[in-house]
Design a protein that fits this description.
mainly alpha
């Protein structure tokens, strides 16, 4: 699943001392897991990423919608990376030109 949904350049190394996934590969027995704080709690580095989101979205449904939107936007951006530049629809090129012209006009003739 991970290989299907990501590329190796998106992966990051997680040091074994903070990686709960490494516990099983280190030979821990299932009966020992209830004593391992790292296994029972999320890694602190993930909390740094998640806490701001959880504070901003106090409702579960709001958080889900925000993450769903971000996930969809990420997929859109990734699809652009894989797109042949010559296959961009004409309407998108025209819209891009309009954005550029408006930005230049705004800089040249501020309101």
């Amino acid at each position: 699943m991970i290989h299907d949904e990501s590329t190796p350049r998106q992966w990051r190394h997680v040091d074994t001392c903070v990686n709960p996934a490494d516990i099983a590969s280190r030979g821990a027995k299932g009966s020992e897991l209830h004593n391992l704080e790292l296994w029972l709690q999320d890694p602190k580095f993930l909390r740094k990423v998640l806490e701001p989101l959880l504070c901003r979205y106090s409702l579960w449904d709001s958080l889900l919608k925000a993450i769903a939107w971000l996930t969809g936007f990420k997929e859109y951006l990734v699809s652009l990376l894989n797109k042949d530049p010559d296959s961009i629809p004409k309407v998108e090129v025209i819209n891009a030109e309009s954005v550029i012209v408006k930005a230049v006009q705004h800089d040249a003739f501020p309101v």
